[in-house]
What we know:
By secondary structure, this protein is an all-alpha fold.
Amino acid sequence: xxxxxxxxxxxxxxxxxxxxxxxxxxxxxxxxxxxxxxxxxxxxxxxxxxxxxxxxxxxxxxxxxxxxxxxxxxxxxxxxxxxxxxxxxxxxxxxxxxxxxxxxxxxxxxxxxxxxxxxxxxxxxxxxxxxxxxxxxxxxxxxxxxxxxxxxxxxxxxxxxxxxxxxxxxxxxxxxxxxxxxxxxxxxxxxxxxxxxxxxxxxxxxxxxxxxxxxxxxxxxxxx
Length: 224
């Protein structure tokens, strides 16, 4: 009985840790997306410098999951929970890494631009949709809501459409301003970073569905 209670205390602590990590990653993403308007170099540097925090937390979560697997050998739903947390842990760390990549990209664009260079794109709608996807995926995890998780697949269509629009806009801008081609390519790569974050949110949603229903699902695009 004592071992059983100890197991569930460890599970509860693990849940708290992964949700704390999710909150930190959401904040990191929000700050990175704000850079698309402010291009604040100090904020960009702060995001890059603090990357180790998420990396350390990812390692701690994985080590705790492996310890629970080894000591308690969970089965059925408890096993699905541990497996899902291991995978979601990895997805959150990747989202944080992409937020760092956005910060680096903004710094590169800011340093290389000519006096009259502008990004030529309003990334706020795409950034807002991606942040909505990440928040929804974490909310679905907290509430163990498979229906909410499935709505994230539909949001991804809008993100992909905005990425395509960004690509077309950048190609047109390169035709008009070939001297700014390098910076414009970096501008487009921000769209790719945002799209990848959306893919990570989809992966989290898939793990929530697996946790709740025991069903392995993949979206039509099967993001990696």
